[in-house]
Amino acid sequence: LDQSTTTSPASVAAEAVALLTGFGVDPALLRRGDLVARSPLTGEETARLAVVDPASAAPVIERAHEAHLAWRTVPAPRRGELVRLLGEELRAAKDDLGRLVTLEAGKVTSEGLGEVQEMIDICDFAVGLSRQLYGLTIATERPQHRMMESWHPLGVVGIISAFNFPVAVWAWNAALALVCGNSVVWKPSEKTPLTALGVQALFERARQRFGADAPEALSSVLIGDAAVGAALVEHRLVALVSATGSTAMGRAVAPKLAARFARQILELGGNNAAIVSDTADLDLALRGVAFAAMGTAGQRCTTLRRLFVQEEVYDVFVDRLKSAYGSVRVGDPRVPGVLVGPLIDHAAHDGMVAALAEAKQAGGTIHGGDRVDVAGEDAFYMRPALVEFPPGAGGQPAIMQRETFAPILYVMRYRSLEQAIALQNDVAAGLSSSIFTRDLHEAERFVSVEGSDCGIANVNIGPSGAEIGGAFGGEKDTGGGRESGSDSWRAYMRRATNTINYGKTLPLAQGVVFDV
Ligand code: UN1
């Protein structure tokens, strides 16, 4: 524990303001308004920000639409140049922005920096993509005709992001949306407004360097509550909403988008599992499980929450896991060697306590999970919890089938791989999953059609920590959206099928005759 590093209450706020000022944010903006920003490191107030009311969101969206109309005529590789400049700004600001992520979201230093690295990576990816936004040419049945696909920008892309990846999620969406010719309007989590202002300031630097072809309203930030998110979701000029958050949020947003036939990318809850086979390399599995379950204090949507261990290796593996849980350093995330920082706020703490109480009621044996005093009563540092459930005929207890956004890992033994896969799939969410095995049959089975039902299925790595090159997202209650790499860019464009007759006659398809 890191009692020695308890910080003086003024220091976090002062440092956050200094970092933002360095990015070019006017410090006067941080001193007035109704939204109180806090740091989970100490619970102290860092800033007070003005919030946008839903009515004043509309003009921002309208200006963004105007910006898109100009931006769509800029050739895509040239649009890529803006994103290249953004990547340059992010490289230059990596240490400072990573630090701000640590101060505002509570991530340990390497994870704060890693999040900014994800932003840089997606910028690089998008720059290459800006020369590849390709469609197909398709054989037509009609002589002297050509059939092809064109991909065009959509318009305004609304981005709603969560506190746990306060900057990377914007970048996954914005970098692709911008090279695809869209403008973006961002509603960040109310828990992490400062990092959003910092990113917007860095984007503005890139836009200024790019020159007049990049309109002023290409990217904007709306600081506000759910009502502002709703304004984005309901405005007819927002062509696509990419929303990351809880399944409950997705359930509120999806019908409104469907009602006006708008596009959606939903990245909602996860309840991710890993299977440790009796053939697994247990050293490797231990490291994979520990990072995925305890990293980011259990606050990734890809966090490992359920673990199924084959009965032959259960005792030896779970004993080792318990000692890893017992020795992991919980404390101030700025201190080298600390691996688990604070929960985001009081409500997250209460959620963890309630889940552990329910798990105990359901027959679980709990290791860890107690509160650690690092920086006083307004900061919520928790020792990660391991909950062993006895093998019961009734499958998984209800608490295990729900996502609690905290470092709790439920552990159960299994006998056959079929049983483990059935348990892993028997939850509402379908984001990420893993198997640790050295048996080729088991590995292939797990990633096959009869295996994991998740959007992400890994072998011999944990379920968290995805790279930007792959498409990211999940099935079922996770919402079905895909963003980031692979061909996710298509979600940010509309496809037009063009058939061109370069002949002098008009043959009709399907042999239809219509002579007038
Ligand atoms: C999230 O938790 O919201 O795979 C996204 C990962 C990260 C993204 C997580 N690259 O853990």
UniProtKB/TrEMBL annotation:
InterPro entries: Ald_DH/histidinol_DH, Ald_DH_C, Ald_DH_CS_GLU, Ald_DH_N, Aldehyde_DH_dom, ALDH7A1-like. GO terms for molecular function: aldehyde dehydrogenase (NAD+) activity. Keywords: NAD, Oxidoreductase. It comes from Lichenicola cladoniae. The active site is at 267. The keyword NAD applies. Pfam families: Aldedh. This is aldehyde dehydrogenase (NAD(+)). It is an enzyme of class 1 (oxidoreductase). Belongs to the aldehyde dehydrogenase family. Homotetramer. Its EC number is 1.2.1.3. Residues 38-495 form the Aldehyde dehydrogenase domain.
